[in-house]
Design goal:
- This is VCBS repeat-containing protein.
- InterPro entries: FG-GAP, Integrin_alpha_N, Papain-like_cys_pep_sf.
- By secondary structure, the protein is mainly beta.
- A six-stranded antiparallel sheet has the order 6-11-7-8-9-10.
- α2 crosses α3.
- It binds calcium ion (CA) (4 copies).
- The site of one calcium ion (CA) has 8 residues, from loops.
- One calcium ion binds next to loops.
């Protein structure tokens, strides 16, 4: 997650102009701290640094630590940085005898907070408590620290975020300094001179964040009947360009049949789903704008899409698994989605004129667990009972399930794919074959690679048949 770096554009003089021994900080005689120095662009900042700390103090309400694993619970690097960031701008004043949110308001208390330790440890106890280990300069990553492990006022610690540039002579770090309070700024490696000996250390319980794997080919697959010829089409976003393409049926998946219907920006949209929300016989798209959480309707014109209309004012980033179909049996397509926070599945009833019911009018059609499902789509009717159905993948098992529509919601699920569907990077559902039964078009690809597109035809009894390759590459 990108974060503002307050000191990034500031011209910083890294020379320490005053030798500030941490020993100057005296608890009994009042804590010596200067007012925070405003970092205005172009300003030359006189670096005032250093630390010191009060005694080891357990965090109230936390289990008394008896081992390193309990002192330092597992935490990701991005969580450490987020926690460090959370104390910025709060106006907290350096004070070895004060606490905020259970942690001591000094250098080691601040790092203890960022690492979510069960005690505010001190510079000379991080290692002896089994929390930290020494690492090399070259191993430093976000959430590690530069530590002077001297006792009391001679010790200090700063959190490492990232190198300033490839020379690795200075870094951007967080610290609770005796003279500048909580600050996020550029620090010469390993630390400002005159403050003792610093070495790079790692909290052994800090884990690397899971890599963000992007789907490099086509993403946000969805399907519907856009061209008015009663043959379903596939719609997908090209990751490299953010363009939206329509792959016309019956040659769904063929590059030769694709038509540009969105010129850019579609990488900023999520939860793209298709259905006819204005009852004109042509399917429309709905999609969430990631930056605002708004839900938009893009009416299908038969040859492309009309300009978008806002149909949900916000909060749609908290919803996933969007699908469109008629799930209350009134002949009008509705929007369904699962709520990430509660795992509930909701139906937002379609009015037939392009709008849907709001938050107050939504109907719960699934009581929980839907946040454990992935890629929920409505391919139409899968079992020839005339009612739209849902298909989705269970994240924990990779199994594919059918949830039959019953006119007021969906019934209990039936397994229609025994596993491996987590390896499918995306799929869309519609009747591609023209037999009145919903089918799936799915991309099989290795992680981080493009793949091929396959058609899984609906059998008519709710299941799907064996895959047929319909897109040879780039998916
Ligand atoms: Ca329409
Ligand atoms: Ca309906
Ligand atoms: Ca059905
Ligand atoms: Ca079919």
């Amino acid at each position: 997650m990108p974060r503002p770096v307050a000191a990034r554009s500031v011209s910083v003089t890294l020379a320490v102009t005053a030798s500030l021994s941490c020993g100057l900080v005296s608890v009994g005689g009042g804590v010596a701290h200067a007012a925070p120095v405003p970092l205005t662009p172009g300003a030359t900042v006189r670096q005032l640094a250093g630390g010191g700390q009060g005694p080891v103090t357990p965090v109230p309400g936390r289990r008394t630590a008896v081992g390193a694993a309990e002192t330092a619970p597992s935490i990701t690097r991005s969580e450490v940085i987020d926690r460090a960031q959370s104390w910025l701008g709060k106006g907290l004043k350096y004070n070895q005898g004060e606490y905020y949110a259970g942690y001591r308001t000094d250098c080691s208390g601040y790092v203890s907070m960022a690492w979510r330790l069960s005690s505010s440890l001190t510079t000379d106890t991080f290692a002896s408590a089994g929390v930290t280990e020494s690492i090399s300069k070259g191993d430093l990553k976000a959430g590690d620290a530069l530590l002077n492990d001297a006792v009391r006022d001679d010790g200090h610690v700063a959190l490492f975020e990232k190198w300033t540039d490839s020379s690795h002579t200075s870094y951007i770090g967080y610290e609770f300094s005796s003279r500048q309070d909580v600050i996020h700024h550029e620090i010469p490696y390993p630390y400002f001179s005159g403050h003792g000996t610093f070495e790079p250390v790692r909290n052994k319980s800090v884990t690397d964040d899971a890599p963000v794997i992007t789907d490099p080919g086509m993403t946000n697959l969805t399907a519907g009947e856009f061209s008015g010829d009663r043959v379903a089409d596939l719609v997908a976003t090209e990751v490299s360009t953010g363009k939206l393409w329509l792959y016309k049926g019956p040659k769904v998946g063929a590059l030769s049949s694709r038509v540009l219907i969105g010129t850019g920006g579609w990488n900023g949209m999520a939860n793209v789903a298709a259905g006819d929300l204005n009852s004109d016989g042509k399917d429309d798209l709905v999609a969430t704008e990631k930056s605002t959480g708004k839900l938009f309707l893009y009416k299908g014109t038969g040859t492309g899409l009309a300009s978008r209309v806002e149909i949900g004012t916000g909060g749609w980033n908290g919803m996933t698994n969007l699908f469109v179909g008629d799930f209350n049996g009134d002949g009008k397509d509705d929007v369904g989605a699962s709520e990430e926070s509660s795992g509930k599945l909701f139906l937002y009833k379609g009015t037939g004129n392009g709008t849907i019911s709001g938050l107050s009018g939504r109907v719960e059609i699934g009581t929980g667990g839907w946040n454990g499902m992935n890629k929920v789509v409505s391919p139409g009717d899968m079992n020839k009972d005339g009612k739209d159905d849902l298909v989705g993948t269970e994240k924990s098992t990779g199994k594919l399930f059918l949830y039959k529509g019953d006119g007021s919601g969906v019934t209990s699920r039936v397994e229609i794919g025994t596993g491996g569907w987590n390896g499918i990077s995306g799929y869309a559902g519609a009747d591609f074959s023209g037999d009145g039964v919903g089918d799936l078009a799915a991309v099989k690809s290795d992680t981080g690679e493009t793949g091929k597109l396959y058609l899984y035809k609906g059998t008519g009894n709710g299941g799907i048949g064996d895959p047929t390759e319909i897109g040879t590459g780039g998916w």
